[in-house]
Design a protein that fits this description.
Blueprint lengths: L10 H13 L4 H7 L3 H4 L1 E4 L2 E4 L7 H13 L2 H10 L25 E2 L2 E2 H21 L12 E5 L6 H9 L9 E5 L4 H8 L7 E6 L6 H18 L9 E5 L2 H7 L6 E3 L16 H7 L1 H20 L6 H15 L4 E6 L7 H13 L17 E4 L10 H6 L6 E6 L9 H18 L3 H9 L5 H11 L7 E6 L4 H22 L10 H15 L8 H13 L1
Parallel strand pairs: 5-6, 5-7, 7-8, 8-9, 10-11, 10-12, 12-13
Antiparallel strand pairs: 1-2, 2-13, 3-4
Helix pairs in contact: 1-4, 4-13, 7-11, 7-14, 11-12, 12-19, 13-19, 14-19, 17-18
Bound molecules: 6-O-phosphono-beta-D-fructofuranose (F6P).
The site of 6-O-phosphono-beta-D-fructofuranose has 14 residues, from loops.
Subcellular location: Cytoplasm
Family: Belongs to the GPI family.
Catalytic activity: alpha-D-glucose 6-phosphate = beta-D-fructose 6-phosphate
Length: 548
């Protein structure tokens, strides 16, 4: 991957700056009025997926200039390097090949002399056999009862992805099998989950790429203790604990049988790992065939991302739009608003995906960047979010680009619910775009027979500036296949942003310092060691010690 690509030195960047000054004063209403074909021109398609970019503050010139920027910064070569398995995670010396986990072609892909696709398929086969045993009732607990509850213990990428997907595919969930997720080292998480479970019918999936993460290992030990309290004999562990990890040695040392270990590899990043063995809880929840459909949806997006011209390339265009708002409009946040209750965990999942990947201020040359990188990702399911934070998006002082996401068909077609839900989706994007002018407000208030003083007082509060950008993403139905496409779309968007910002998207050194300091504080809380930190940290530790 090229290292000297400072985006702000690119010729296209200078042109975008000039273009920004021309375009920024224009209102989206004007852009729509000028071009009746705007929706068609700014719609992108992949199979049944529709991505409508037309309510963004862009013209065709904007998208062309942004695409020129991507070309100038050698994006096509960077995409190929990732798919080919070059060690693009340079600070850890690793390839980045989550795409290999959903590669169903007959190709071979060599990493360090091994065809990794063969290894991938062998673990997939192991997962399939395990799921079949579980679902057929052939996998029995230590007292001969079938498993009725699975608890995934993991954190970050070993939790957020599988949990989000299990929630999104709840309507496909196997009956007679419940799935819970424990991630927080706060004992409440484990306690509240275990409270209602029976060790005889519970199976724990310990998910950790490194198998050294403190939170996960602590929760796993608590689960083992809880289990052994009733089961007594350590021999029974092999019927109730399986592990997903790259670190088989540590798994075995923990006491989980090697044959109960589902491997993956260091070329799978934690936040990109739901397609690997880390997805075992998903396969258990919905069945291995549905898990495979999820992978196939992602594969379709991979193919599109690798082959479609940049101007028609959905992840590329979404990433470029984000550059436009972040680096030219100065937007610092981006909202993700799924109008589908099943997708309510998508914003949480995307927070890790995007903010852990591109929340960086050092470029690939080791220099501090002098431009903004990853905006804050946040959001919640519509319509609940309309009754919470939409006020600020409509009338606040900051500009917040947003993604609205919805299926045309609901899994729960109750009465008029889905039409009502989607009328809100469409209305919100329309309102954000159009706003309401002072003249329109006056006209509306005139019919209400208000006194002129009251009317004048109200007018400024009821005006909506509009011109707030949104992208609408729709598909027919939320199936495992569509979900795979959607998630892979955001993965590739994240990758493209990182290429443009010239940062390494696949490491996460920023999470280390806190872990290191917590390791130093731990003995001060558990033993008698005296706390010697800055006055605030020492004061807080002492408050805890005096009040526990
Ligand atoms: O938060 C840092 C991190 O390393 C994430 O990138 C990762 O997903 C998470 O911790 C969990 O790591 P592991 O799967 O190794 O337990």
């Amino acid at each position: 991957m090229q290292k000297n690509n400072s985006p702000i030195e690119a010729k296209a960047w200078q042109k975008l700056e000039e273009h920004y000054h021309e375009l920024a004063p224009k209102h989206l209403r004007e852009l729509f009025a000028q071009d009746p074909q705007r929706f068609e021109k700014f719609s992108l398609h992949l199979e049944d997926m529709l991505v409508d970019l037309s309510k963004n503050r862009v013209t065709e010139e904007t998208m062309q200039l942004l695409t020129d920027l991507a070309e100038e910064l050698a994006l096509p070569a960077a995409i190929e390097e990732m798919f080919r398995g070059e060690p693009i995670n340079a600070t850890e010396g690793r390839a980045v090949l989550h795409t290999a986990l959903r590669n169903f072609t007959d190709e071979s892909l060599e990493v360090a002399g091994e065809n990794i696709l063969e290894e991938v398929r062998s673990v997939q086969q192991q997962m399939k056999v395990f799921c079949e045993k579980l679902h057929s009732g052939a996998w029995l607990g230590y007292t001969g009862k079938p498993i009725s509850h699975i608890v995934n213990i993991g954190i970050g990428g070993s939790d957020l992805g599988p949990q989000m997907v299990c929630e999104a595919l709840k309507s496909y969930q196997k009956e007679d099998l419940r799935i819970s997720f424990v991630s927080n080292v706060d004992g409440t998480d484990a306690a509240e989950t275990l409270r209602h479970l029976d060790p005889e019918t519970t199976l724990f999936i310990i998910a950790s790429k490194t198998f050294t993460t403190k939170e996960t290992i602590t929760n796993a030990k608590t689960a083992r203790e809880w289990f052994l309290k009733k089961a007594a004999d350590k021999e029974h562990i092999k019927k109730h604990f399986v592990a997903l990890s790259t670190n088989v040695e540590a798994v075995v040392e923990f006491g989980i049988a090697q044959e109960n270990t589902f491997r993956f590899w260091d070329w799978v990043g934690g936040r990109f790992s739901l397609w690997s063995a880390i997805g075992l809880s998903i396969a258990c929840a919905v069945g291995y065939d549905k898990f495979e459909e999820l992978l196939k949806g992602a594969e379709a997006m991979d193919k599109h991302f690798r082959e479609a011209p940049l101007r028609q390339n959905i992840p590329v265009q979404l990433a470029l739009l984000s550059i436009w708002y972040t680096n030219f409009f100065g937007c610092q946040t981006h909202a993700v608003l799924p109008y589908d209750q099943y997708l309510r965990l998508l914003p949480d999942y995307l927070q890790q995906l995007m903010m852990e990947s591109n929340g960086k201020s050092t470029d690939r040359n080791g220099k501090r960047v002098d431009y903004q990188t990853q905006p804050v990702i946040w959001g919640a399911a519509g319509t609940n979010s309309q009754h919470s934070f939409f006020q600020l998006i409509h009338q606040g002082t900051v500009l917040i680009p947003s993604d609205f996401i919805a299926p045309a068909q609901s899994h729960n077609p109750l009465g008029q619910h889905h039409a009502l839900l989607l009328s809100n989706f469409f209305a919100q994007t329309e309102a954000l775009m159009k706003g309401k002018t002072e003249a329109e407000v006056r006209e509306e208030l005139r019919s209400k027979n208000l006194g002129s003083e009251e009317l004048e007082q109200l007018v400024p509060h009821k005006v909506f500036e509009g011109n707030k950008p949104s992208t609408s993403i729709m598909f027919k139905h939320l199936t495992p296949y569509t979900l795979g496409k959607l998630v892979a779309m955001y993965e590739h968007k994240t990758f493209v942003q990182g290429v443009i910002w010239n940062v390494y998207s696949f490491d996460q050194w920023g999470v280390e310092l806190g872990k290191q300091l917590a390791g130093a504080i731990e003995p001060e809380l558990l033993g008698d060691a005296k706390a010697t930190h800055d006055s605030s940290t020492t004061g807080l530790i002492n408050y805890y010690k005096n009040n526990r």
